[in-house]
Task: structure prediction
Amino acid sequence: MRIDGRPYRTLFVADDRWTVQVIDQTRLPFEFALRELQAAEQAADAIRDMVVRGAPLIGITAAYGVALGMRSDATDAGLLRVVELLGATRPTAVNLRWALAHMDSVLRDEPLDGRVARAYVEAARMADEDAAACESIGRHGLALLQRLSAVRGGKTVNVLTHCNAGWLACVDWGTALAPVYAAHDAGIPVHVYVDETRPRNQGAALTAFELGAHGIPYTVLVDNAGGHLMQRGQVDVCIVGSDRTTGSGDVANKIGTYLKALAAKDNGVPFYVALPSSTVDWTMHDGLREIPIEERSPREITHVRGRSDDGALREVEIAAPGSAAANPAFDVTPSRLVTGLITERGVCDASREGLQSLFPEHAQ
Ligand code: MRU
Result:
C-alpha cells in the first residue's frame, strides 16, 4: 500500500538486513512513523503495547521476533525462551501461536550456526505468504461486491466494517478491507461505514487513515449506530476480520462485532468474515467456550487519547474518577450469524463442512 505515493508494507527488514522496521500504529493517524525492532524483547513489547496489531501482523512480527532472538542466543534454550516470551504477549489472535509453532519446528531441525539465517528466510516467506493470502481474499471478496453492485444497478455499495482489518493489520492489503480495495480499484463505487471501535478506536484512527489514503469514501460511526443504519437499509453488507476462527466457523473479533452480526441478521444484511487460513484454529470447535478473550487495562476505558485544537496529543479522563471498568477486547460471533467466510481459497459457509471443503487437508 502507498503512503504519500511510496509503497509500504507494515513490516520490513532495514537496509542493514537484520533490523526489523514496523509502522508505529500508536502514533497514527496523526503521525506516520517507523519504529526499529532490534531484539526479541522489543518485538514482544511492540505486540503487547499494540505498536503492531491485527491478527496476521501479530503473527509475522512474532516470527521476526524469533529471528531477532536467535541473533543473541540460537541454542535450544534460547529458542524456547523467545517462543515463550513472544507467546505470552496477546492471547486471542491465534496467528501468534501459529507463527511461533512454525518457527519453533523449523529451527529445531536446523544446526545452531544456520538458525539466524534460516529464521529470517522463514519469517520473510511467511510475510510474503500473508500478503499473497490477503490479495487472494481481495479477489474472492471482489466477486461478492461485484454481485452486490449489479443488484444495486451500479449504485454505490455501502460496506460496514468494525475495528481495523485493513493493510495495517496485516503485511499488506488487509482481510476485510482487501475486497473493498479490489472493488474500488476495479471501478466499483464503494463507501465504507467505519465503526469507531472503542476503546482504542482502531476504526476511527486506522481504518479511516487507510481508506482516506487510498481515496475510498468513508464515514466514521459511533459503535452503536450500525444497527440503526441497517434498519434503514443504508448498509448493503458487513465485512469484518477475525482474530481466531474455530474449525466450526465461530469467529472471535474485536469487541462489538457480535452486536453487529446480530443487527445484520435481524435486518437481512449479509455478514461476511474475511480471514487467511492462518487465523483458523483447527483444534477448537466451540468458540464461546474455548477461545481465550484478552482482558486489557481499565485505563483504555476510563481515558481517551486524541489531538487537541493546539495540535498536542493528549490523554484525558472521561469516566467518573475512581470508576471500575471492564475491558474485554474481543467477542465471539457464533457461526450461525455469519453468512460466509472469505478466505484465500474462496468463500465458504461458516461451518466445519464449509471450511473443510476449501481446506481438505484439515479434515479429520
Ligand atoms: O486488538 P487489535 O487491534 O489487534 O484487534 C484487531 C482486530 O480485531 C481485527 O479485526 C482482527 O485482528 C482481524 S485483522 C485482519
